[in-house]
Amino acid sequence: QVQLVESGGGLVQAGGSLRLSCAPSERTFSSYGMGWFRQAPGEEREFVAAVSWSGSSTYYADSVKDRFTISRANAKNTVSLQMNSLKPEDTAVYYCAASSKLLRFNSRFAWVSEYDYWGQGTQVTVSS
Fold first, then answer.
1. What residue spans of 45-114 are helical by DSSP H?
2. Do residues 86 and 12 lie in contact, with contact meaning Cβ atoms separated by under 8 Å?
3. How far apart are CA 120 and CA 94, in angstroms?
4. Distance in angstroms (rounded) separating the CA atoms of residues 112 and 35
5. Apex CA 42: angle with CA 36 and CA 43, to 5°?
6. What is the mean pLDDT of residues 46-73?
7. What is residue 116's DSSP assignment?
8. Which helix (H) or strand (E) holds 78?
9. Phi/psi of residue 30, nearest 5 degrees
């Protein structure tokens, strides 16, 4: 059982930045594709960004492209999401997720159902 612990959420003004971090408990963390999703009140959980097991491939939702950057440091067992130029519509609970389905990760990274493990979520609030 992989446990994922997110940190770094908070309240920020529009145009500001936040950095989210996710620390998996699994020693074989490098065997998982990793993703960030978010869920606003009354909305479905949506894909934000993902990174392949090696870190060589990254994927972004159109709404965050050029503003958010996902990265991973397998030696440090962490995955991060740098969020710049934040907008009020970025307000949501952000979730870190891990997928063991590596053979199809590059085609299904945006699917909630492809992820085996989820963190508890961290709140991000962007004020206008």
1. 105-108
2. yes
3. 9
4. 9
5. 40
6. 96
7. S
8. strand 78-83
9. -70, -10
**Digit-coded pLDDT (tens) for 3-19:** 899 999 999 999 999 99
> Which residue carries 């963190």 as its tokens?
119
CA R_g for the chain: 13
Who contacts 13 (Cβ-Cβ below 8 Å, separation ≥6)? 126, 127
62 or 77, higher pLDDT: 62
Identify the pLDDT of residue 1: 76
- 1 CB-contact burial (10 Å; exposed 0-12 / middle 13-18 / buried 19+): exposed
Q: Note the pLDDT tens digit of each residue in 15-50.
A: 999 999 999 887 777 789 999 999 999 999 999 999
Strand order across the 78-83 sheet: 4-7, 18-24, 78-83, 68-73
